[in-house]
Amino acid sequence: MSDSTQIIAYQGQPGAYSHLSCTRVFPNMEAFACETFVEAMFMVEDGKADLAMIPLENSTAGRVEEIYRLMPKTQLHIVGEHFEPVNHCLLGLPGTQLDELKTVSSHPQALAQCLDHIKELGLEPIASLDTAGSASALPKAGKKQFAAIASSLAADLYGLEVLRENFQDKDGNTTRFLILSRDKFVPEFDPTTKYITTIMFTVRNIPAALYKALGGFSTNGVNMVKLESYMASDTMTATSFHLDVEGHPNEKSMQYALQELDFFARDVRIMGTYDAHPFRYEEDVIVE
To answer: Catalytic annotation on 23?
Structure first.
């Protein structure tokens, strides 16, 4: 993807991890903060933003349920993915010493992920709505006994000092983001490149419906890397699915698999085909 367009929308305050992801992937675009996921996504739908950076799942906290329900209500296309390792930083006012700190504020999940280090420093954890909001509150409070857990970008934006990097208790906490566009973009097939295709579909509430719908991927050797279910119907009579597979629609194996899916499922919608992010394969190990 090119970053020659103008605006990329995200949910959260400036300095949030979604904002950080925008700056990493599209450094020349203007990142626009939105209060909700709905606002960010519909800014793109309405042509007020060119792209949106939306978190879909986190390796520690799990999936963002709301996104699965919002996606079918839009006409947006997935044009890329980004994996952002979460580096929690302990932030304070410039010149603050660790032994001056009394409290630390952040989103409850961030506090939980840093609990051992919080206890080590003897700090009182205070829950807030988000990480960046906690950081932005520190200069207003103006007291060195207050700290926040947020991103390094939040420190830069709000004039704070990083007292400790990698403040999380365990490494490996990563968020997967989807990059959404109003315009459809499918990269030209290259046999040396790995692709992800995201599909949404619904099956009837009958025995073996899902087994039959997915059978074509197995018989044609297409690897399924993610399958999530959600109830999109108010009547609770049909289950909808979000499916990620390794493949490109121009491959014969994918074409055969999609034909079988179309036969056994309904409301099939290809949300996008895009380059697989290198993070997916960083931990691949060959066992001899």
So the answer is: no
